[in-house]
Amino acid sequence: MSLSIFNARLLDPASGLDEIGGILIEDGFITAISPGATGAVGNANEVIDAGGLCLAPGLIDLRVKTGEPGDEQKETLATASRAAVAGGVTSLVVMPDTKPVVDDVALVRYISDRAKVSAKARIYAAGALTVGLEGHAMAEIGMMADAGAVLFTNGDAPISNPSILKRAMTYAASRGAIVMSRPDDSALKGSGVMNAGAFAARKGLAGIPKEAEWIGAARDLMLAEATGCTLILDQVSTPRTLELVSDSRARGANVFTTIAAHSLFFNEIDVGDYLTYCKVNPPFRDEETRQAMIAALKAGEIDSVVSAHDPQPPEEKRLPFGEASFGAAGLETTLSALLSLVHDGPLTLLEALAPITSKPADMIGLPEGRLAEGAPADVILFDPNKPWLCEREHLLSRSTNSPFDGRRLQGRVLRTFVGGVQVFER
């Protein structure tokens, strides 16, 4: 099978390409890229005139929660991938905090096998760093890596025992495995439910101080330096954390950072009248911090943007703010959130796309995420200017707990291709 897409605005952050042209796809791979081409490229069986739409690599999301196995009422691999391709996400890493926890070879293989038969997107498994995510004993990192796990994490639960974490990092380093940690200090976080500060005090809600992230990050970075482990600091939310990362990198540590897309769009004021769809961890910070993180993203200090997709059913969100579960659905809104920073001026299109395409691919060693000859033909066609209203009842995720519900956004995916096969069309 061959497909030619032409008259498209080719966008490839990896090479800096931003030009009208076309591509040729054959047997699931990009075989030709023709900037400036005004007609079909090659002798393809199928030809698509993009009509000036943007053609970019499919998005890569390094942090997606599902409920499969065990909590399928929240999300399955099939429903997550359905939402993913609607948002332009063609590759996603699913977290291990399921029931049971993905902490052995059999469950890594289960994720892979289930994805092959039910998912529209490419799904990669993250393995648990400790058995049961309990933080007491290191999981089978080596065997899970051999089975296809692309990184290892304790999810939302920081490992309280630094000796266990050091042991896991040491072993991961010996196997060339990647560790992803959520920088946090449980004691400092306590019962906090939103950003600590004057606004939280006025709302009568317990705050999550920034210091909890700083102290957690400092510890994890020191252990990464000591062990030589490749570390991803997951969902950083403050400039001070990035300063710690910069210092650690200067000493030779191999450290990457991610940020949740919603943290770049919302601030603490958006909690409003106790909107539980805006209850996330890390919480939405103050506006000054949000602007500083946008500047850091533009400066290249943040490596990847993630959806932090965390589906929660209505019964977990329709509760008093302090009792509601943390988490927000994000697969269908990540691109639009980043495009808002293009329309508002801080970022160019290529700067917005890089942390959701080529950069995460490079972080975990995937061949996707770029428009290049020989690369997998995972591509999207999107209109960066198309306005739309995010309404939870129209989202394709099984759980629709989106903080963007009721928001007007600009920029939408119109077609998604995985391996050269169209898996979504709007």
Concise description?
The protein is an alpha/beta fold. Helices cover 30% and strands 25% of the residues.
Description:
- With 426 residues, this protein is of the alpha/beta class.
- The chain has helices at residues 77-86, 105-118, 141-147, 162-175, 186-189, 198-203, 210-227, 239-250, 261-265, 287-298, 314-317, 334-343, 349-353, 358-364; strands at 2-12, 17-26, 29-35, 46-49, 54-57, 59-64, 89-94, 122-128, 151-153, 178-181, 194-195, 207-208, 230-233, 255-260, 304-306, 379-389, 408-418, 421-425.
- Strands 1, 2, 3, 4, 5, 16, 17 and 18 form an eight-stranded mixed beta sheet that branches. Strands 6-7-8-9-10-13-14-15 form an eight-stranded parallel beta sheet, with helices on both faces. A two-stranded parallel sheet has the order 11-12.
- Helix 4 links the parallel strand 9 and strand 10.
- Helix 4 (162-175) packs across helix 7 (210-227) and helix 7 (210-227) runs parallel beside helix 8.
- It is globular and about 60 Å long.
- It starts with a strand and ends with a strand.
Notable features of this structure?
426 residues; alpha/beta; TIM Barrel; eight-stranded parallel β-sheet; 18 strands; 30% helix; 25% strand
